[in-house]
Amino acid sequence: VVAALLTILVRTVDDISRSARGLLEVAGKVAGNTANIPQLEATAPVLGLIVEEAVVQDRYMNALTDGYGES
Length: 71
Fold this sequence. Notes:
Layout: H1 2-34, H2 37-41, H3 43-65
C-alpha cells in the first residue's frame, strides 16, 4: 500500500513539475507580447495632435481652393 501511495505521489509531483515548466514557457511569451503596452498608452495623445493638425491643414486647403474654378 505504501509503495502504491508513493508511486501516485511521485507521478503527481512529476505532473505538477511538467505543468509548471509549461506555464513558465507561456509566461515568457506573454511578457514579450505585453512589453510594449506602455508605448501604446502614449499613442492616444499623439493621435489627437495628428487629428488637430489634419483639421488645420484641411482648413488651409479649403481656403486656398474656395472659389477656384468658378467663372
